[in-house]
Amino acid sequence: MIINIGLIVSESQITVKSLDTEQNSIESISLSFSELAKQDMNLLFFQNIEEMDSIAQLLKSEENLYPIVDISSVEIEKSEFENLNYNDLFSAFEKINTRWILSNNIQTIEELCSKSKTLKNLWIKDRNEFFKSLWTSFKMNLAATELTILFHDLKEPTAAGKEKGEKPTLCTSYIKGSKLAEIYPGEETQTALMKEYEKEFTEAFNITEYDATKGQLVICSHLEKSPILFMATVPTLNQLQRSVLIGLMNGLQAV
Q: Of 119, 120, 154, 221, which residue is least crowded by CB atoms under 10 Å?
């Protein structure tokens, strides 16, 4: 798993350290602030942010995607960041990420009824928006560094096919991303994955595989008999996270 931790050095520069959790190694790069929106990020530190008015708006658009916090909250000085080792950085990430996950879980619990109703309405009216919203909910509550959702979709016939009376055919689509997500038409790989797990789509929420060492998580679900496959990379998975997502998927069955 790759965990990207950044520090706002100035209004024009960010230092990003990429932690490889399998190799216990670090790589460091510098970015211009304008590149932040395109950069996968899992934690961003700042110090004296009140002195950087020009970047406030961009940070506002990023703050719902990953934690953005004062570096002093983990008892580290800005000047120390460049020389932090892997263990120190990973420890700081775990501390902040745990708080962030808890906050997201609590917020989802507080909004569970309205969120379920909103999602179910999208399921009926706009399937693409449903899966984009579901992707965001799972990413926020899992703090996933990567998340892919596979689902059955309908492929519309071509204009010529419609003239011949051809009807939409069942296919596989998927939504994928690490920071923001896009929907793509499935290929042989995605179709094969849905086939591989077809016997697991029996519950609203079923953790089929979880490798805590690599953070690899597979969840099988269904909605109105339509299978949904979640494949994520997560830093951690606790009972509260499980319960929140079980509640969300169960809520969709009941609405």
A: 154
